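#struct-help
A.M.: can someone run this one for me? Single chain, 347 residues.
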Amino acid sequence: MRQRRWLELIKDYDLEVHYHPGKANVVADALSRLDEKKRAWFTLDDQGVLWFKNRLVVPKDMELRKKILDEAHTSMFTVHLGSNKMYQDLKQKFWWTRMKREIATYVSECDVRQRVKADHLKPAGRLQPLAIPAWKWEDIHMDFIVGLPRTQKGYDSIWVIIDRLTKSAHFLPVKTHYTAATYDELYISRITITFDRGSLFVSPFWEQLQTALGTNLIRSSAYHPQTSGQVERVNQILEDMLRACALTYSTKWDECLPLAEFAYNNSYQKSLEMAPFEALYGRRCRTPLNWSEPGERVTFGPNLVTQAEEQVNFIHSNLKRAQSRQKSYLDKRRRPLTFEEGDHVYL
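D.P.: on it. Structure tokens below:
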């Protein structure tokens, strides 16, 4: 009958009727909702305590709610549970409006929880490749491999220096107690250097030396070894090579170092599509495998310059493609991240 009365009323109007779900009609008149069933969920016991589906109703007392949340989250019997586990436990005993949302907010603001929880999200931040150097040995990485067994000559560390363009590297045995002044004879002037934030490299000596020699020093980000990711990767390769040499030839690691440097510089690099030796010198390195082959034609004068420029352009193209592939691959597994002035972050 009610529908008939409405039809009689609206038949004189030119209109179209569209269905609007009740759950989407958030401004519906409360009087049009039959809440008898919901009212039945609330009960009062003999002591005047309000219950909702056999759960204690917590009034809108923020201090009381905080005490409940503190006990459910920070006590030694809960040890900083996540928001979902905490909600599942609390909802068995308590109820209040927007309870799940308040629990999630509370847990997200817990300092201890934020410090210790495992991050299951994609790593934050897109890959930001370093600019490709313009020429050979103009831009290098430096780092140390330390903690090695002390040799008879007293060496216990390796100074790793890598050209970012050609990937060619030098591995120099050094001693931990060397001072910054000891390294100045090996220092290359008028080049850009990206290095690890070791105490040696950030010492006043190196600051003054770079000013005197006109060298541009770029420090890697603190707690972010990926800034010098290339040298970190070479360190790993070098350590593997030295272990293999020690196991195969039973020699000391400092005696294997020249062989490891030769092997690395003569190994194919996918990003270059050639070996570092060839990228640096413009010709392939002769090894026992090709000593019987005829020698290469020697290039002099303008032809040598032209050949070197063409090869550098070829290397640039290869490195750009390699960086593009790497960025495309890694960014699929990362999420964008932006910071606003005044934001607080964990390191």
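A.M.: thanks! The chain is about 40% helix and 10% strand.
D.P.: also worth noting: Confidence is low (pLDDT under 50) at residues 188-192.
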